[in-house]
């Protein structure tokens, strides 16, 4: 009976997809309303440091200050250095740092995960950290799958999202996501930073490629929305990425500058179709891209740092009201242009709610606190983001 209901739902979503989901919206039962007074009461009880902590979702290594980042000779978070450390448990240093530096979320990577027993123990330790962090992971399916690509886990593997897109059947995207979501929920995760909503229009794209469902937005759109629904039905919150679209780029933002030369109108006719459908569906999280869009913003500022992209376009024109999370701020496209303070404060000024993966969490945290104390950021601005975060946590049940 359960399987029959799932396939019926997938069929309904597929029908909605024929009109690009313009009339397919979640009901109040799908997204339970969190009483505003409960969130406000919690917010009023919080100190500034507690609020700022909610804005940061970090890799575990960021809480271990014996691991040094961001200086010549230090560990490079984007290299094999950090993978070799294999941090797979919360240690005394992390607990000590966390007493002063609460965190809103923790993201685990492949090197943080050994097997089921270790993962279960690690997640229990993380749950006890100050800030009541949500547990996050990149488990897209295909080559980006921290658990499925670990031989110690007996879970179903998927070739790629492009292979699923090639079937032309959105039910396959639903099945993939529901399968992934089921084992993520079982292991104790809350958020999966998936699916990739990019439309892979550039065949020379080295970072998206087969992670995208298609080079055609009409094919990709029902796949993206069915994937979100599959995660949701398994009890996992999904996240569409990488706004405003990483599909028409050649360079990899993990290592440096990348850009899309499309105009906003051109994006509206391609890249943004999937994102608009995800917003209409009710996605709780949208991840930014670190790509520059000079023909939209008139500058080489990465979208993650651009108020034009995040406020004017995403919030204003597209009407998105839920959480904006950055791509990892330790990536080269950010670190080659900004230091920790500039990046953390700048993306919050631009309109992001969650700073994901800062290169140096402690320095970034201190910079945001100082920015509030100096009037560069107002506490009201911090409250805007914290409200959204607290609301999501209550919806998730954390």
Task: Offer a concise description of the structure.
This protein is of the alpha/beta class and 398 residues long. The protein is built from 17 helices and 10 strands.
Name a few traits of the molecule.
single chain, five-stranded parallel sheet, alpha/beta, three-stranded parallel sheet
Question: Could you characterize what this model shows?
Answer:
By secondary structure, this protein is of the alpha/beta class. Helix content is 45%, strand content 8%. The strands form three sheets. Strands 6-3-2-1-10 form a five-stranded parallel β-sheet.
Shape: globular
- Rounded mean pLDDT score: 89
The percent range for strand residues is: 5-15%
Strand order of the largest sheet: 6-3-2-1-10
Helix content: 40-55%
Enumerate how many helices there are, as a single number. Answer: 17
Element-level helix/strand string: HHHEHHEHEEEHHEHEHHEHHEHHEHH
Q: How is the topology of this model organized?
A:
Blueprint: H1 2-17, H2 36-45, H3 48-54, E1 56-58, H4 80-85, H5 92-100, E2 105-108, H6 116-127, E3 134-137, E4 139-141, E5 144-145, H7 161-167, H8 170-187, E6 191-192, H9 217-233, E7 240-243, H10 264-268, H11 271-281, E8 285-288, H12 294-297, H13 307-317, E9 323-325, H14 332-335, H15 340-350, E10 355-356, H16 361-373, H17 379-396
Parallel strand pairs: 1-2, 1-10, 2-3, 3-6, 7-8, 8-9
Antiparallel strand pairs: 4-5
């Amino acid at each position: 009976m359960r399987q029959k209901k799932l396939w019926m739902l997938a069929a309904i979503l597929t029908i909605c997809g024929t009109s690009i989901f313009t009339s397919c919206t979640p009901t109040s039962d799908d997204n339970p309303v969190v009483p505003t007074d409960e969130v406000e009461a919690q917010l009023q009880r919080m100190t500034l440091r507690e609020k700022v902590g909610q804005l940061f979702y970090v890799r575990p290594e960021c809480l271990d200050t014996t691991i040094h980042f961001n200086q010549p000779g230090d560990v490079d978070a984007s290299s094999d250095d950090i993978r070799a450390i294999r941090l797979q448990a919360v240690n005394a240093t992390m607990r000590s740092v966390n007493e002063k530096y609460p965190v809103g979320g923790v993201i685990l990577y492949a090197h943080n995960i050994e097997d089921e027993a270790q993962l279960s123990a690690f997640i229990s330790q993380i749950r006890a950290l100050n800030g009541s962090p949500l547990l996050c992971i990149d488990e897209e399916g295909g080559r980006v799958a921290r658990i499925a690509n670990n031989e110690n886990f007996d879970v179903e593997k998927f070739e790629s999202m492009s292979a699923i897109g090639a079937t032309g059947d959105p039910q396959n995207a639903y099945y993939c996501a529901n399968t992934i979501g089921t084992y993520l929920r079982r292991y104790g995760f809350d958020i999966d930073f998936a699916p990739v909503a990019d439309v892979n229009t550039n065949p020379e794209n080295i970072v998206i490629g087969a992670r995208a469902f298609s080079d055609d937005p009409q094919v990709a759109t029902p796949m993206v929305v069915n994937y979100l629904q599959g995660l949701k039905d398994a009890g996992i919150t999904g996240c569409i990425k990488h706004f405003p679209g990483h599909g028409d780029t050649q360079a990899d933002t993990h290592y440096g500058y990348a850009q899309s030369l499309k105009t906003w109108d051109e994006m509206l006719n391609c890249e943004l179709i999937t994102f608009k459908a995800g917003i209409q569906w009710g996605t709780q999280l949208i991840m930014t891209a670190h790509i520059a869009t000079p023909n939209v913003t008139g500058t080489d500022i990465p979208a993650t740092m651009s108020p034009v992209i995040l406020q004017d376009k995403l919030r204003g024109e597209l009407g998105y009201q839920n959480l904006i999370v950055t791509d990892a701020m330790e990536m080269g496209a950010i670190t080659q242009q900004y230091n920790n303070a500039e990046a953390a404060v700048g993306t919050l000024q631009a309109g992001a709610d969650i700073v994901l993966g800062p290169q140096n969490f402690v320095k970034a945290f201190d910079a945001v606190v100082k920015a509030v104390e100096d009037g560069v950021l107002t506490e009201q601005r911090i409250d805007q983001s914290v409200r959204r975060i607290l609301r999501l946590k209550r919806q998730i049940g954390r």
